Amino acid sequence: MPMTLLLLLCTLSFATINAAESTLTMSEHYCSNSGTFAPNSTYQANLNRVLADLVSNAYSDSNEGFFFNSSEAVYGSFMCKGDVSKKECAECVKNASVEITRICRMTNVSILWYDQCMLRYSNANFSSTVEMKPWLGGYNEENIEQPDKFMKLLNKTMDYTVREAAEHPPRIYGHRDAKFAEDIKLYTFAQCAAYLSTNNCWECLRNATSSLLSLQKGKIGGRVLLPSCFVRFEIYPFYRSSSKGKVPFLLKISAAILATTVGLTLLIYMIARHLLRGRRKRRAIRRDSERCTEEYPIIRRQISELHSLQFDLQTIESATNKFSSNNQLGEGGFGPVYKGTLPGGQEIAAKRLSRSSGQGVEEFKTEVELVAKLQHRNLVRLLGFSMERDETILVYEYVSNGSLDHLLFDPELSGQLDWSARYKVMVGVARGLLYLHEDSRLRIIHRDLKASNILLDADMNPKISDFGAARIFNTDQTQASTNRVVGTYGYMSPEYLMFGHFSVKSDVFSYGVLMLEIITGKKSSQFFTLDCDEDLLGYVWKQWSNRTPLEVVDPALCGAYSMNEVIRCMHIGLLCVHDDMEDRPTMDSVVLMLNSDSISLPVPQRPSFFFHGKKNKQAPYVLNSDQSNSKVDQSISKITSPGSLTDSVHADPGPR
């Protein structure tokens, strides 16, 4: 057969395939009722320009997919399904730009979904936000056999799919298939809008997946379409993958020709690579150096700033008697910590990176990044560092009374912490967290607040330590997500433990657990190692709801405490551990509530997330003064109010 005819047949075959697959199927649309624009208005003119720009962009090579017009602002974007061709994408966007104005007439906010693409416009800038509404999509009506087995496979497969979509650069989608039965295969797909950051993509896909897997179970297919991302599963292939079954004979020939060409190209490349290996090595060294400079600019700058505080390894070895075991204060994820004395007499605590530590290097980078910017009396002070030979060491001020957990949970030592000292610790830690969240030059989320990370000086002033797991937020950033959850079980908030979402409210939850530990003298983690029907939060809540809150107070206090203060602190702690992060107070509100007993507090809700003995939820109670029949009832009713924090807390928290 002549080659010309062969190529013509191949071309016709591809054209037939593309024509069959490019049929547009409209899935969902959303026309907001929040507002409309007038015909022939400036808004309509700008909308027409934005839609035209989007279509033009879909046909171009840049394919950025986001445009706006600043006069009577109109923002628009499109997202083509990651596996469709450029031509299919452009045609889909072109059709959508016409159809969206017909379906959603004169509305300020509209979204149109096809199977191949999504087009939207709005009068508000959505490029830097993760939007969870409107929620579009649905499920196939047919149910699958063995639904429990199917849901287990769907959970696992969708998790792989979401990771693939979120961990790649923008416009890269994720898909995965898995065998369910002899004749049934599961197909999953996930994709984010190109303008989303990696963290925002994670957040959107996790929320979409959570909805998809929980709203209905055991269906043979379903999808969740959010403005910022979408996820879908079916038991039939609905996307293109690298393997699509049998390939036509003519296409095999074309593939063989292509493979031969690629092979020759690779051979030439390998020869050139061999000849230039020495030069490439030198370039690689220089490139790695430049990349390090770009990746850690803050760390490098701050290390330079701290040059005068850099310690010689010999000095630290001498101060700690060569890291003698007799000088060891403790050990964490970073490595062991040793007490030492510098030549001038200053006492230090040297944290030495363990060679077996899997997270020590990352912790070190984080702590160095933060050291020059965090100065507060309730944060432990980093004096400097040492990086010589194979040693990586952080040098801190020595805090004489050690960690809070060392005193609080030791039956023989807990008596040293009277109520005045415990109250002082709670207030100090709250002020330290407020500084991290609001008052420092950076917004810092600690992510591992717990009793062992609170150090006490000679005057029992608390100092928050261990910033290895901390994350830095932009000033306008409120939350983020991660697939590497770090922290301590029992202190982690529900949204962080389940979905990897963290924010200032995650630290508030940990602080609430810490408050209840300080009041009860009981360690949160001990409830998970013992055969208990309840955890610490359930233990406290049971007595609170029975109107016997003093039953949980640490016996080591021997009754020497202010009943009103104890009950108020317990109340604040319960507010901090609310399941819904939106219901938790901010740290500035917590500081104000601790410093003023005249502010009415909202009614706490039962912390059901970690509560093992879950039955029907009890409604929170409110005591009125005429119902009180004891001093405890009077104390509780005095600080209990059905109002919200936003209604009751307005004053400035005062000096910190």
**Approximate strand percentage:** 15-25%
Molecular shape: globular
Residue-averaged pLDDT, rounded?
Answer: 76
Low-confidence stretches: 1-23, 242-256, 284-304, 610-631, 639-656
- CATH fold label of the largest domain: Transferase(Phosphotransferase), domain 1
In the CATH hierarchy, what is the superfamily of the largest domain? Answer: Transferase(Phosphotransferase) domain 1
Helix content: 40-55%
In terms of structural class, how would the helical and strand content be classed? alpha+beta
Strand order of the largest sheet: 1-4-5-3-2
- Using only CA atoms, what is the Rg? 30 Å
Largest sheet: 5 strands, antiparallel
Tell me the span between the first and last alpha carbons. Answer: 87 Å
Q: How many β strands by DSSP?
A: 21
Q: Tally the structural domains.
A: 4
Output the CATH class name of the largest domain. Answer: Mainly Alpha
CATH architecture of the largest domain: Orthogonal Bundle
DSSP helical segment count? 20
Description:
- The chain is α+β, with helices and mostly antiparallel strands.
- The chain folds into 4 domains: 23-127, 2-Layer Sandwich (Killer Toxin P4, Chain A), CATH 3.30.430.20; 128-242, Killer Toxin P4, Chain A (2-Layer Sandwich); 299-397, Phosphorylase Kinase, domain 1 (2-Layer Sandwich); 404-648, Transferase(Phosphotransferase), domain 1.
- 40% of the residues lie in helices and 16% in strands.
- It contains 20 helices and 21 strands.
- It has a 5-stranded antiparallel β-sheet, with helices on one face. The chain has a 5-stranded antiparallel β-sheet with strand order 6-9-10-8-7, covered by helices on one side. A 5-stranded antiparallel β-sheet has the order 11-12-13-15-14, sandwiched between helices.
- The chain starts with a helix and ends in an 8-residue tail after the last helix.
